[in-house]
Design a protein that fits this description.
Layout lengths: L1 H21 L5 H16 L4 H12 L1 H4 L1 H9 L1 H6 L1 H40 L1
Length: 123
């Protein structure tokens, strides 16, 4: 299990190095997740130990937000100064996320229905 926890952290570190080296406007952990996803895609399966480690991290995810919450409280006055732009950004990003999710669901439902129809014709 320690090896897979190290793998997760190594993917995050590699993501941070890629972002820093290429000066990309993405978070390093996102690139690390992509690297881990590609590794698992080429492997074909998720090892049981990796699933156990990731489940343990997800079960304790709320604890990982404590430092972010502390940071918000420390900079609360600064956030208050930019409350209007932050509120607009939050609402706009939420609406955009809902819209993109809806469009993707419609496309995936059409694709799934088309695939099911073509499979019924073969049977």
């Amino acid at each position: 299990m320690l090896a897979y926890f190290t793998l997760i952290l190594a993917c995050q570190l590699i993501g941070e190095l890629v972002i820093t080296t290429l000066d990309l406007p993405l978070p390093g952990p996102v690139v690390g997740m992509i690297i881990l996803f590609l590794f698992l895609t080429f492997r074909g399966t998720v090892p049981d130990s990796l699933a156990a480690v990731s489940d343990a991290l997800l079960n304790n995810l709320s604890l990982l937000f404590v430092p972010a919450g502390v940071g918000i409280m420390v900079h609360f006055e600064l956030l208050g100064e930019d409350a209007w732009p932050l509120s607009v950004a939050l609402v706009a990003s939420t609406l955009l996320t809902i819209a993109v999710t809806a469009v993707l669901m419609v496309l995936l439902n059409k694709h799934t229905a088309r695939k099911a129809t073509s499979n019924q014709g073969k049977a």
